Structures are given as structure tokens and as C-alpha cells.
Amino acid sequence: MGESKPRAVPWKPRLFCVMTLLDNFSQFVFSGLTTGSIYALIAIGFGVVHNASGIMNLVQCEFITLGGMITATFYTFAGIPLAVSIPSAIITVTLIGALFERSAIRTARSQQVVILIFITIGASIFIKGLALIVWGSDPFVLPPFSGNEPIHILGATIVPQNLWVFAITISVVTALHFFFKKSITGKAMRAACCNRRAAALAGISVNRMILLSFAMSGAVGAVAGIIIAPITTTSYDVGFMLGLKGFSAAVLGGYGSMPGAVLGGLLLGVMESLAAGLISSAYKNAVAFIILLLVLFIRPSGLLGEPETERV
Amino acid sequence: MQPFGFRENANTCYLLILAFTLVFLPLLIRSSYYLLVVNLIGLNTILVVGLNLLIGYAGQISIGHAAFFGMGAYFSAILTTSFGLSVWFPSWFPGWLIPWVIILFAMLFTGAVAYLIGIPTLKLKGNYLVMATLGFNIIFEIVLVEWDSVTGGANGMAGVPYLAVGDFYFNSDLRFYCLVWSLCLLTLIVSFNLVNSRVGRAMKAIHDSEVAANTMGINTHRYKVKVFVLSAVFASLAGSLYAHYITVITPKSCDIMYSIQVVIMVIVGGIGSVWGSLFGATLLILLSEVLHVIEKFNVVALGLILMLVMIFFPEGLIPGLLKRRRSQVQSSPFRSRRSEVRSQTSDL
Q: Could you read off the pLDDT of B121-171 as tens digits, one per residue?
């Protein structure tokens, strides 16, 4: 959203038109909240894997790309309606996530986090390279889910797709919340994260929980990639920046914390949009990473995370 | 952790062999394209040796070293082209010396930046350290592209002058070959000296267990920052040389992919092995030249290599292969496969 809209009235002296500024402000906040919701979803994807296994899964970036691109392929080339191609794309990416865990992560000789993060980086580059070969470097367009009629709210103009983004993010977050708090599988996953050995003794298959977490992060990443595609278009490398910004959001909110992911995502989206609109749009992409570094330097546990204590 | 089990004296011996080979290599290689490839190997080795000291000895991962490479390259490129720097130097100062002085200043500047960044960054561990260095590299890349009045934006800078000593210009592949490989040998010698010194042993201690090193009275954080600065300075040197050799520098040559590529060189050659850096750089540069014809496959191959090596040889490809070979030769019935695996995982 933020990229496509040119700034309104660039030549008027800004100080004197308070109304314009206010309008712009709410416009920035709305577009920030939209991208922020995407960041939140991605941050949750990172968090789900982290919570089950302690792995930082950078293939998350590629889940986003694959979600958008596979939907676009089904829709544009195979002519399958959106209502069918979206779920099938989500299922495909879920399976890819599970396959990645089963083939690469579980067979790894070393279970050290640094080794595992390199495996995910390697897989991420590999998938990105394959995506470039398969789809080329041209962007793909997905149609909005329902209409393109602009809606005016609080002086801001938004398209229905923004509402879809909000609605889907809220439902995914709620569903995951209940999954982790109420369902037996969700509880088992949290147990596996808390203490692997104790969970295994209680009869939980820890490996299966990790597999499930990768599958789930695949699904969530795919959803994020699909719902943003009608707004920004999608291409083979769209996931790289989005994914890393989603990671920054996760760190900002507290890595691994679900409310933190949502808060971090929305905050980051709004800050980025405001910085792009009010300060300089050239350095828009740098905002997320400057925030990432600042958070890591000042408070690595993030806003809502608990500081890690290290046992020797 | 002795590199491939060589003795210390053996390293001197191998260095001499390498030097001799290097003297005679240009006689074998007639084509200027192959010399270019060999020069690129030398340039990358300078960077990778430094990075290997950081990853293999101090145990700190960085996927932001392309930024330091870029800092050196851009520092040299900007100061020798856009700025009329020669007016700042006294008239008796020979003109050919100025780019060399600038290279030194670039190294100082990069070292200072690395120092400032290293202090907070190296307090982080594992994943966060990786992501912080990655974030730093991305910010650097964005600044290069957006600050186009100084850096030339996405097109980069062209027309960087060749280095020279008096009237002797390093303007051909063969001449640059002499320059880059003598500097490369120098970095190898510096690294061997460092590794076999008190500092090197302290670094190994940090690599094995930071807490234990700390309790032994080693100021681990200070050592980590020092090695970080040293590796950044090496990267800066490689960058400056690259700019003066290719005479063109773009943001693409110091992007995150390049950072990952040099990390792969470290991993393939062997983590914590100075010689491994040379092998890793050679293998990866040759590979990317072979795959140059089908450029799209280069990225796929890099990803696949990184993934497979890390899955099957967590301590690096060449050491892993050597170890496997050795264990096949003398497979003792008392040493199970399990313990072999476990001893591998203690690396890095």
C-alpha cells in the first residue's frame, strides 16, 4: 500500500495545512497497520518454529514467496478460481514446510542452533534460486479478494483488501491462540518447547511436534504471502525483505511471544509507514533493520519477551 | 584444532611451497581470463582468512562481512575519483602513493566502524548475532543505493584508477596477480602467527567454551571485538584492492549474497583452518566461474552446497571428508559411529 500511493500534495507548505497532515497521518497509520498485520503473521510463523524447537527458521521468507507465487500460478496459468487456488497453495506450502523439516532439519548431524540456522539459510537461497528459474523475475499480480471500491475511514482511503488483511490476521491469531491454549496438540507443542525430555517422558512425540511447527509456519507464511499479493504484487524475491522485516517485528515484540509478535508487527508497520511518509521514503526499508539493531543492542528480549537467563 | 593436523613448522614449509607454486603459476596460465579467476581467488582468500579467524577461532558468526568489503571498496573508489584529494597532500608527495595511503585509511576507517559495531553486537549470541550482522549488511546496502550523490546509487562507481608504484601500473591481470598474491601470502603469514600466539590460544578457548575462558581470566568480549575488527580490516583491504583492480564497484558486489558466499567459503574449506580458507575460496570461485554460463543456477548451487555441507559435515566439507577417510582407514571396534558424530558436533 505504502509504496504504490504517491504522497498527496507534495508542494504545499506542510506546516500550514493541518488537515492535510492529519489526513496523511491517518492514511499512513492505516497503510502501516496493513503491512504491520503481514509482519505480525510472519513474526508468528517465526515464533511457532522457535517455540517448538528453538530454531530460527529463515525458510519462513520463502514460505511467503511460495504462498503468493503458487496461488498466482494456479490462478493465472491453470485458471482455477481464487477460492480454490488459495487453499491449495496453502496446503502445498504446508507440505513443503513439513518436507523441509523431515528432510533437512531432522537428518542434520548437528543440532546446534548456529548449524541449523545455516541449513535454513541454505534452503532459503536454494528455494529462492529455484523460484527464479521457475517463475522468472517478472512480478505476478493477484486480483483483490473482493472488489476494488475505495472506502473512506477517518480521512484515510483504503481498499477492501486492507480489510481482508485485518480480518484474516485477526482470525489466524485468534485461532492460533486457542490452538495453543485449549487443544491438546497445542499444549503438547508448548510442553515440547518447555522441556524436551520431560515432554518425551510424558508421551509426547517431540519430533512430531517440531514437524507440525514447521508445517504450521509454512501455512501461516503462505497466508501472509497470499493476502499481501493483491496489494503489492508478488515476485520470486518478495519474501526476502518481508520475511526479514517480519523477523525484526518478532524481535521487537519479543521473540517467540505471540502477543509480542502481533504488537511488534503492528508497531513496526506503523513506524515504517510514518517514517516513509513524514521523513524520507528512500530509507523506508532501512527502518525495520535499524529498529532490529537497536532492540538487539538495548533489550534483546524485546518489548514483551522475558529476558533469557543462561545456565552453564 | 590444528589445521588438518599439520605441525607448526609444517605450515612454514607449506607456505614456501605455495609461494613457489605462485611464482611458476603464471607460466602455466597464459589466458588472461584464467588469471582473472586466480586473482579473484586471491582477493577472496584475504577476506575469508579474516572471517575464518572470527568464525573458526573466536566462534562468532557474521554474515555481514560484505559490508566491510564494500566499505573498503567504496572508501577507495570515492576518495580516488570524486574527491580531488591530491590538493590535500603536499606537493612533494608522489601522486602514485595517494591511493595506497587511502587504502590504509580505508582499513583504519573500517576497523573503527567494526569496533563501534562490534562492541554491542558481539554481546549477542547464536541466532541474534547472525541476524544483527545480517541487518547491518542490509542497512549498508540500502545506504549505498540511496545515497547516490556520493556512492553513485545502484549503478555504483566507475573509473577507479589502477594502483601504481612510480610509473609501474598494476593495470594488467599479470601485474595485479603479483600484487594480490603477495598481499594474500602476507595475510596468511599474519594469520598463522596470530593463531599460534597467546591471542590465538585465547580465541580457541573462547570458541570451545566462553564461560570457561572467562573464568580463566580471558576478557572474552575484548578478544571477540579485536578479532572482529581484524577480520573487518582484512575485508576492507580485499575490497579496496578489488575496486582498484576491476575499477568498477556496485552495491551488488557487497550485498548479502556475497556475505553468505564468503561464509560458505569458510564452511566448505573448513571452520577454524587457515589453509581451509584458501581451499574454500578456490573451490567456490571456480564453481561460480563454471556456473557463470548459467547464472541462475549459481544461487541454487550455493544454497544446496550450504545446506548439504551443514547437514552432513557440520565442521566443514574438507575436514569432514578427511575425517571420514581417516576413520575408515583406522576404524576401531571401540569407536562407534555415534561417538564420531558427537565429536563432530562439538565443532563450531
A: 988 887 888 899 999 999 999 999 998 888 888 888 888 888 888 888 888
Q: Where are the alpha helices (DSSP H) in A54-148?
A: 60-72, 82-100, 113-135
Residue indicated by cell numbers 541474534:
B128
From A286's Cα to the closest Cα of chain B, the distance in A is 5
Would you state the cell numbers that stand for residue B30, as one nine-digit string?
A: 597464459
Segments making up each domain of chain B, as ranges: 3-254
For chain A, where are the E strands, in sequence order? 151-153, 156-158
Residues in chain B: 348
Q: Find the distance separating the first CA and the last CA of chain B, reported in whole Å.
A: 11
Pairs from B94-97 (Cβ < 8 Å, separation ≥ 24): B94/B166, B96/B163, B96/B164, B96/B165, B96/B166, B96/B167
3-state secondary structure of B36: helix
Predicted ipTM of the assembly: 0.86
A267 in Cβ contact with A89 (< 8 Å): no
Q: Mind listing the pLDDT tens digit for each residue in B76-117?
A: 999 888 766 666 777 777 878 888 999 999 999 999 999 999
Spans of all domains in chain A: 38-136+161-291
Q: Which three cell numbers stand for residue B33?
A: 581470463
Residue type, B204: K
Q: Which amino acid is at A251?
A: V
Query: In angstroms, what CA-CA distances link A284 with A67, A184, A290, B136, B143?
Result: 25, 42, 10, 15, 11
Q: How far is CA A131 from CA A127, A136, B261, B299, in A?
A: 6, 7, 19, 11
B43, B241 contact by CB (below 8 A): yes
Three cell numbers at B77?
573508489
Best CA proximity match to B299, nearest among B243, B267, B251, B256: B256
- Name the strand (E) or helix (H) holding B249: strand B248-249
Determine the residue among A99, A126, A248, A312 to mutate to test chain B binding: the one whose Cβ has the most chain B Cβ atoms within 10 Å: A126
Distance of alpha carbon A7 from alpha carbon A26, whole angstroms: 13
DSSP characters over B82-100:
TS-GGGGS-TTS-TTHHHH
**What is the C-alpha end-to-end distance of chain A, expressed in Å?**
48
Collect all residues of chain B within an 8 Å Cβ-Cβ radius of residue A122.
302-308, 310
Question: Least CA distance to B211: which residue of chain A?
Answer: A312
Residue B281 and residue B44 in contact, taking contact as beta carbons nearer than 8 Å: yes
* Furthest C-alpha separation in chain B: 75
By residue count, chain A amounts to 312
Alpha-carbon distance of A109 to B345, in angstroms, equals 7
- Exposed, middle or buried by CB within 10 Å (0-12, 13-18, 19+), for A1? buried
For residue B174, give the C-alpha cell. Answer: 599479470
Q: Which of B307, B308, B327, B338 to mutate to test the interface with A (most CBs of A within 10 A)?
A: B307
Q: Is the pLDDT of residue B214 over 80?
A: yes
Provide the grid cell at A143: 486480483
Contact A114 B61 (CB under 8 A): yes
Burial (CB < 10 A; 0-12, 13-18, 19+), residue B84, is: exposed
To the nearest whole angstrom, how far is the Cα of A114 from the nearest Cα of chain B? 6
For CA atoms B205, B207, B209, B210, the dihedral sign is positive
The reply to whether residue B135 touches residue A125, judged by beta carbons under 8 angstroms, is no
Three-class SS of residue A304?
coil
Residues of B in contact with A293 (CB under 8 A): 132, 135-136, 139
Which has more pLDDT, A262 or A159?
Answer: A262
